């Protein structure tokens, strides 16, 4: 009974996400940016770096996952370690996926990314310890899910058929922008978390917050799976 109100609040957050489909399209790219990527050619380091940073700052799935990762990390060296693992995974598949032309179904990869948000929230709630007696290695999990996050973006870039002229330096610039955007978003998250942790409400609301993160992850995952089955059924 004591957890009923927090659960209802978490479900309310999920409902808000459902009625805002643009939130669920975490790897979506604005139409103007999409047109730009399809039309330009040559080495354009600054524009691609800007687009990479913009993607990270507005990427709800990335931000939710990062929030879950750092939620109970109090030392900066631990934050740096986990964020570095995520960045390495993200960078490897982003660059390798585009340069090799290897992609996966966009709906499925984004569903897995939603699952990564669910996983991290469950890990924070110590659900795996209760269910299985032990939790997955958190460092390995962050690295592996980082690979999926990068593959999701690589799939989108491949869909846009970016010009091969200047592709390698532009991709590197884009990835640098992604990492800079990640640092900016992470800095804002850490500032908010640092303030919240000093209040008495943190201990009371930490469970609720992670249930909300988990619920959002389920919404992201469900939205993408519905899209996958609809496109397969109706060929849209």
Describe it.
This protein is an all-alpha fold and 236 residues long. It has one domain (27-234). It has 11 helices and no strands. Helix 4 (45-58) packs parallel to helix 10 (167-197). Mean pLDDT is 84; it is low at 1-8 and 10-26.
Keywords:
236 residues; 81% helix; globular; disordered N terminus
Number of discrete helical segments? 11
Flag low-confidence runs. Answer: 1-8, 10-26
Number of strands: 0
Percentage beta strand:
under 5%
What count of structural domains?
A: 1
Helix content: over 70%
Mean pLDDT: 84
Major sheet: size, sense and barrel closure? none
Describe the global form.
Answer: globular
Radius of gyration, rounded?
Answer: 18 Å
Question: What order do the SSEs take from the amino end to the carboxyl end, as H and E?
Answer: HHHHHHHHHHH
Structural class call reads mainly alpha
> CA-to-CA gap between the ends?
45 Å
